[in-house]
Amino acid sequence: MPKPVSPAELDKVIHERARLAIVAALAAVEDMTFIELKDAAGMTDGNLSVHARVLESSGYVAIAKRFVGLKPQTSLSLTPSGRAAFRRYLDQLERIVAQGRRPR
């Protein structure tokens, strides 16, 4: 039987609602443009920028800026450590749910 997991052990960087939305959206794809991610996560430009920087500084998200034609385009992707952190987060959540479903 796996050791019990406390919700306090969840990754605090990912667990915040807005950052969880970002990481979950990016986990399903290779990368997304800033606008695609903003729409997928239902966030404002400023809110997405702030949370994306937190995820970038944690090493979970890579932010790339380039030009498409004459227009600047920002894209975001999960780093390998970001994907691993999200898998750990999901594994911990699954264990917490399983603990709550066990008969007492």
Walk me through this protein's architecture.
- The protein has 5 helices and 3 strands.
- With 104 residues, the protein is α+β, with helices and mostly antiparallel strands.
- The protein has one domain (10-98): Arc Repressor Mutant, subunit A, CATH 1.10.10.
Which structural traits does this protein have?
Arc Repressor Mutant, subunit A, alpha+beta, 17% strand, 104 residues
- Given the structure, what is the number of helices? 5
CATH architectural grouping: Orthogonal Bundle
How many domains? The number is 1
The biggest sheet amounts to:
3 strands, antiparallel
* Poorly predicted runs of 5 or more residues: none
Alpha-carbon distance between the termini?
Answer: 15 Å
How would the blueprint of this fold be written?
Elements: H1 12-15, H2 17-27, E1 32-33, H3 34-41, H4 45-57, E2 61-68, E3 71-78, H5 80-101
Antiparallel strand pairs: 1-3, 2-3
